[in-house]
Amino acid sequence: MKWKLLLLGWVTITGSLFLGSLSGTVAEQFGLSRNSQLLIQGLVMSGLVVPIILYLYRHAYRITGVKPKIPVYSWKRAYHFFTGILLATTLAVLGFIIATTQGWIVIEQWHNPDYWFTPLLFNIIIAFLYEALPEELALRGLLYDVLRSRFATWLAVLFQTLLFLSVPLVVNQLQVLVGLNPGNTITVDYIILILCYGICLQLVRIWTRSLWTSIGFHLAYLEITRFVVLQNDGPSIITYNETVNGLGGLYISFGMLVLGGIIVSLFILGSKRFIRKRA
């Protein structure tokens, strides 16, 4: 029954991601704007994942025989949403300070909020509905909890991360089969990022015992990379130059946010374990 529940959870997040991307394509055929397409994708994604996963959670509690007094997704733990945002923001700020002092990047301009605030706010809504909320609820939530009822923590984290990686791989293949453009370009760099990112998100959920922490971290990571780190044609908060092409952005987005998140989480978990043993 646990494996069946695991499969149902994985199929839910994978199928919903595919249908979400497909809904955007359909909306485009009706001549809707890009923003409208993104909003539809987000609504379809969360509209499918959230109720199904919450329903499956009820069965998970019955099958595993373990139901916490306060579920990890409970609104009572929602204040940890800001814990995740604060952690990601702090790591990013430290990353920019280090990269600047080391001469890896040179900040050229801070842009007026009138330039980036509205696009940022809209992207936060889309990213929350399409990525952060459904992915965390399904992957770092249900799938991890089912795995944890069967395996040790480190194995549950590992298997959850592999399932996380399998989602975009399978969705890409489904998109190709139906004639859509793949949503992601699968490279070695992408695979390494997804694996480390999945571990980071799972660990921040574990040490706070709140799914809202990983949701907040996930959302903050997306906005920081899109509106601060990536220097593309879209609106950004700052403009900077790199002395070595790609080094500064890679250090901040991967070195500080992802690897830094893993290190901080492991330190906190290790400290809590040490304190418990000494008590």
UniProtKB/TrEMBL annotation:
Q: Which UniProt keywords apply?
A: Membrane, Transmembrane, Transmembrane helix
A single Gene Ontology biological process assigned to it is:
CAAX-box protein maturation
InterPro entries in the cross-refs: Rce1/LyrA-like_dom
Q: Where is the CAAX prenyl protease 2/Lysostaphin resistance protein A-like domain?
A: 120-220
User: What is a single Pfam family found in this protein's UniProt entry?
Assistant: Rce1-like
GO molecular function terms attached to this record: endopeptidase activity
Q: Which parts pass through the membrane?
A: 37-57, 78-107, 113-130, 151-171, 183-204, 211-229, 249-269
User: Is the keyword Electron transport in the record?
Assistant: no
State the coiled-coil residue ranges.
none
Please indicate which superkingdom the organism of origin belongs to: Bacteria
Write the protein's name. Answer: CAAX prenyl protease 2/Lysostaphin resistance protein A-like domain-containing protein
This protein's species is Ornithinibacillus bavariensis
